[in-house]
Amino acid sequence: MISYLLQRLGQSLLVLFIVVIMAFLLFRFLGDPIVSILGANSTGMQRDELRRQMGLDAPLIVQFFEYLWQTMRGDFGLSYRLGQPVARVLLERAPATIELATSGLLLALIIGIPAGIYTAIRGRSIASQLTLGVSLIGISMPSFFMGMLLIWIFSINLGWLPSFGRGETVQLGWWSTGFATRSGLAALVMPALTISVFQIAMIMRLVRAEMLQVMRMEYIRFAKARGLSSRSVYIHHALRNTLVPVITITGLQFGSVIAFAAITESVFQWPGLGLLFLQSVAAADVPMLAAYLVLIAVVFVTINLLVDLSYYAIDPRIKTMAEQKGPAA
């Protein structure tokens, strides 16, 4: 277990190191930060002085290791657009996106896994065929269209839910949550549903395909021949072996929702990382873009590491392979 964990940690650190290099190059070669800070009307003397103060006159390799050290301490500099520390802005916006992504993904799992099991077991029923047809619509429908459709139905016509914003939030330390207020929960419904539609369809079809494959295995036939109940065969035997690819997709999709929720957050004006990213792109806020790149890399690397460790716990074959490779390595 230790060698398996160390191997995955080494791979994760290598990926993060490469991402930091990319962020550094983005910081140094995408425009001139001196001009962005002082403005186009600044004099050459003012620019040279600020360049010296920021250490931009040092050799490139020295600048990189200084940037690496600052990144490891969580110091990403000041936002050109907001004039605030980038790390503080990211911490303020992160709770909104994390709560949105978590709510959407939990909704997808709660609906998608049972629906996938049902369509695999009752594949010829009318309800199963109807569910599969609806899932195709969910996969093919763009998220921005789904969001606008929900706003038109539940906000404009029915007036049940707010069409934008996060509602009232409660501060718990540095974390701001909308789960503790009625308006916060109401504001969360449509964005979470918009995010979950595609995830529901994908998870459902993945679970169905894996269940159909597993149910053709010899050990499933042997379990049925032993007289085990259908519930025991489908849930305790078939579903457990279906969970490995589901965990993979769920983990990657959680990272993807955090990284690419910009469209949904833009439609609902949700004050999260995605909306912040779009605003930073429009303003050419390079420090914010570089920090966002590093943050998303950390999210994906962490999720992939947790997924790998969950493989180790769920699938005994992976545990056996890792133990066999450990002594050899």
Number of helices, counting only DSSP H or I runs of 4 residues or more: 14
For the terminal residues, how far apart are their CA atoms? 13 Å
How would a crystallographer describe the biggest sheet? 2 strands, antiparallel
CATH architecture of the largest domain: Orthogonal Bundle
Number of domains: 2
Q: Categorize the overall geometry.
A: globular
Placed side by side, the strands forming the largest sheet appear as 1-2
H/E element sequence: HHHHHHHEEHHHHHHH
| Spans where pLDDT lies below 50 across 5 or more residues | none
Helix content: over 70%
Estimate the mean pLDDT confidence: 79
**CATH C-level of the largest domain:** Mainly Alpha
Return the CATH topology of the largest domain.
MetI-like fold
CATH superfamily of the largest domain: MetI-like
Backbone CA Rg? 24 Å
Name the structural class.
mainly alpha
Descriptive labels:
329 residues, 2 domains, two-stranded antiparallel ribbon, 14 helices, 2 strands, 2% strand, globular
Architecture overview:
The protein is mostly helical and 329 residues long. The protein folds into 2 domains: 1-81 and 283-329, no CATH class; 90-274, MetI-like (MetI-like fold). 77% of the residues lie in helices and 2% in strands. The chain is built from 14 helices and 2 strands, in the order αααααααββααααααα. It has helices spanning 2-29, 33-38, 44-53, 60-72, 86-121, 126-140, 143-157, 182-214, 218-225, 230-259, 262-267, 273-282, 286-314, 316-328; strands at residues 170-172, 175-177. A two-stranded antiparallel ribbon has the order 1-2. β1 (170-172) and β2 form a beta hairpin. α1 (2-29) packs antiparallel against α13 (286-314) and α8 packs across α10 (230-259). The radius of gyration is 24 Å and the shape is globular. The two termini are 13 Å apart. The model has no long low-confidence stretch (mean pLDDT 79).
